[in-house]
Design brief:
four-stranded parallel beta sheet; disordered N terminus; binds calcium ion; 30 strands; globular; about 450 residues; alpha/beta
Length: about 450
């Protein structure tokens, strides 16, 4: 079973009704300080101390071996409530491995100075950096296809380093970060779990890891591309990580409202949750990934062959809503993808959901897709040098579909067919519901503020 029971709306409604009746019974000005003896049982989850909770022993790959306990054993001196960037940075302590519980209260903005003053892109810009000058210097017609060098690129790098110093926040081993109650938001930050073990992030909204200084990369994909620096959450060399009831998005700065420069979208965001460079044993549950282009990259290069045997990740009961691509895109990893809900809106950009890349071994079970009519079943998958995908129980706009044969039929002749044997069977997981049942539960229970 999952460690994150859903609140049942019926119970919540009953509790709300009871509270209303109590309030109606009170004289004006009185407060219902203590519930009367006849009040119903507390709403499930209320009073729980999320910071002390640990991953259930069977809940996905992060439960393997010693499991994932985060900072649950922290002593009283290492339980922090943080309300601004400076407090958060102090609590993270440069990525120390002392067991610690960090509760985020309200909205914490990473783009602030140590006195809490908001910093915008102009505050970071240095060395004469100017976007118009940058565009003039590296226009493909005059600059050509080589990597930008020279004064404007030097100034961009120096400016970017100033922003990175503020927004990149390193998370060390034995750390739990939780939102305090509902409405906890970390905005503008790139949380980076680097070369660390045993980390939990729960009940927290991560918003808008906005790059003030995207770099022009000529020739990526033919025309060139703008590359943004920050993932809202980046696991790099990270093991035993549990991400639960997190909401991650570009809220406030959608990339589709950015202009194009050199004919390419001026992207401000990189991944929502990227899992790379030897990361292993990760469970991502009951989270929402939304309003974003490249949501989740598992394995960042075919050349990183040291990722072989690692990148083992379980994704269950997550919602991918209004995501253009990478939900996830996988290299090398054994990824168990079950009971997730995918929503593709009408009118939005959409490329694919599940990316099957080099040596990936994805087992996809009972996932639900809701798409507009122009999206085909074969569009849900995309393969780059992928060889196999195991899937069953997929539901597409209410109909059961078998992804692999449909994908192979649509792409016959263009590449090698995907096989269906990935060579492993997931052992660590909770109950796997039908796609339909899971989609309803996810719609009601996934995301920050719903962890109890
Ligand atoms: Ca990334």
């Amino acid at each position: 079973m999952t460690a994150s029971p859903l609140r049942r709306p019926a119970r919540r409604t009953a509790a709300a009704l009871a509270l209303l009746l109590v309030c109606l019974a009170l004289p004006p000005g009185a407060e219902a300080a203590t519930p009367p003896a006849t009040s119903p049982a507390p709403v499930p989850g209320s009073g729980r101390d999320l910071g002390r909770e640990v991953l259930a022993t069977d809940d996905g790959w992060a439960a393997e071996g010693a499991g994932t306990t985060g900072g649950s054993t922290a002593d009283a001196a290492h339980v922090f409530t943080v309300r601004n960037r400076a407090q958060l940075a102090a609590a993270l302590d440069g990525g120390s491995s002392v067991p610690k519980i960090i509760r985020v209260a309200g909205t914490v903005d990473a783009n602030t100075d140590d006195r809490g003053r908001r910093l915008d892109c102009a505050d970071y810009a240095t060395g004469g950096y100017d976007l118009d000058a940058y565009l003039a210097a590296y226009h493909p017609r005059t600059w050509g296809g080589t990597k930008p060098t020279g004064p404007q690129e030097d100034a961009r790098k120096a400016s970017a380093a100033r922003q990175a110093e503020r927004v990149e926040l390193r998370v060390g081993s034995n750390t739990t970060i939780v939102g305090a109650g509902r409405g906890a938001v970390l905005t503008g930050a790139s949380l980076q779990v680097k070369d660390a073990d045993n980390v939990i992030v729960r009940n927290l909204e991560l918003r808008d890891a906005y790059d003030c200084f995207p770099v022009w990369q000529p020739n990526t994909g033919g025309l060139g591309d703008w590359k943004a620096a920050y993932d809202t959450l980046w696991l790099r060399g990270a093991t035993h990580v549990w991400i639960d009831h997190v909401t991650a998005s570009d809220k406030g700065h959608p990339d589709d409202r950015e202009p194009t420069h050199f004919g390419r979208n001026y992207l401000r965001h990189d991944g929502l949750l990227d899992i790379t460079n030897g990361s292993d044993l990760v469970t991502v549950s009951w989270s929402r990934f939304t309003d974003h282009d490249k949501a989740m990259l598992i394995g960042n290069a075919d050349t990183v062959t040291t990722d072989r045997g690692k990148l083992r990740v379980t994704l269950h009961h997550n919602e991918f809503d209004s995501v253009v691509q990478r939900a996830p895109r996988v290299r090398f990893g054994q990824v168990h993808l079950y009971n997730n809900r995918y929503v593709v809106p009408d009118g939005g950009d959409y490329r694919y959901s599940i990316g099957v890349a080099t040596e990936s071994r994805i087992v996809a079970e009972n996932n639900s897709f809701t798409t507009p009519g122009h999206v085909e079943v074969a569009d849900l998958l995309k393969s780059w040098n992928g060889s196999a995908l195991s899937q069953r129980g997929t539901e597409f706009n209410g109909f059961p579909v078998d992804l692999v044969p449909i994908y192979n039929a649509y792409n016959s002749g263009s590449e090698t067919d995907l096989a269906t044997d990935v060579g492993w069977t997931p052992a660590l997981h909770g109950r796997i519901d039908s796609a339909e049942r899971a989609a309803a539960d996810v719609a009601r229970g996934a995301g920050a503020g719903r962890a109890g």
